[in-house]
Design goal:
Layout: E1 14-16, H1 24-32, E2 40-49, E3 54-66, H2 68-71, H3 75-88, E4 98-103, H4 108-126, H5 132-150, H6 160-171, H7 190-201, E5 208-211, E6 222-228, E7 231-237, E8 244-249, E9 255-257, H8 258-262, H9 274-285
Parallel strand pairs: 3-4
Antiparallel strand pairs: 1-2, 2-3, 5-6, 6-7, 7-8, 8-9
Helix pairs in contact: 1-3, 4-5, 4-6, 5-6, 7-9
């Protein structure tokens, strides 16, 4: 799912960085107090540098802690825990722009169901199975339900059945059929790259990571590259696996990039089924 959100009119988007290695000491500090790392949600301002083809992290950081134990703490206990978390935070970000919010915990049943629903919505929209207007309506409907549980502490039980209904309604509105011009001789077809990806899933083709040299699992918020069956694939990774194909070059020199794919059927990775996407991500992370 998309986790970016504007946090103030003059700031860059905030992106999830909870699983970044530089923030692990904060999670360790929580766990040393008996609070699970899963209770923390860390967001950091980030700006995309087109020339460097990577994100640069900004000063604003928001750490949300949602746990029954911290919610029940008194003020002095929270002050003590906050001091410990700030000591564990990366020194360059431990300043006035780092804020810690103590939030009411939300039932894991709701969190799992809602995250699953929003993920399915995004995946089906990227597969061109849901029209843009229907996607926006469904996303707002899901967000509205989440705010009722997250911010207003409404009982989530009666809202659970509505998640499936919102998805079903969105899927009843596919986009209009589009007509595409013939491919240029220098272009790669979306279907070709999808077929290559499916060979990876079937283990009949093995990707070899070229960048980063340390392996795919060490890449975060940037472009990586791997070769497979004579193809070169550049792909963007956010936190795990792959987000989309940025550029593909065939063995005979034809190419396709993000913009060209978007102008046609869609991104080759995004058009794959859920289990295929998940399998590729796992193979890249653990070759």
């Amino acid at each position: 799912m998309s986790t970016d959100a504007l946090d103030g009119d003059d700031r860059a988007p905030m992106g999830l960085v909870t699983d970044h290695a530089e923030w692990k000491p904060v999670l360790d500090a929580l766990e040393s107090e008996g609070i699970p790392a899963s209770a923390a949600r860390i967001q950091q301002e980030h700006r995309w540098d087109q020339q460097a083809v990577r994100y640069f992290m900004g000063p604003h950081v928001k750490i949300e802690i949602r746990d029954a134990c911290t919610w029940a703490m008194n003020e002095s206990e929270r002050i003590g825990l906050e001091a410990k978390l700030r000591t564990a935070a990366p020194p360059e970000w431990n300043g006035p722009d780092l804020v810690i919010h103590w939030c009411r915990p939300v039932a894991s049943e709701w969190a799992t169901a809602w995250l699953g629903a929003i993920d399915k919505l995004w995946r089906d929209w990227r597969r061109r199975r849901i029209a843009d207007d229907a996607f926006e309506d469904a996303r707002e409907a899901l967000s509205s339900l989440h705010r009722r549980v997250w911010d207003e502490a409404e009982d989530h039980g009666p809202l659970l059945p509505q998640l499936g209904g919102i998805l079903a309604e969105a899927r009843r509105h596919p986009p209009a059929v589009r007509q595409f011009l013939p491919l240029l001789v220098s272009q790669v077809d979306v279907a070709e790259v999808m077929d290559l990806m499916r060979r990876i899933v079937r283990r009949s083709a093995r990707p070899e990571v070229i960048f980063p040299a340390t392996g795919w699992k060490h890449l975060s918020h940037g472009l990586g590259e791997f070769i497979v069956d004579g193809w070169s694939i550049q792909a963007f990774k956010r936190n795990f696996g792959m987000k989309y194909v940025q550029k593909a070059r065939s063995p005979d020199g034809r190419t396709g990039d993000y913009e060209a794919f978007a102008a046609r059927e869609g991104n080759p990775f995004s058009l794959l089924e859920d289990h295929e996407q998940d399998a590729i991500c796992e193979i890249l992370e653990n070759p």
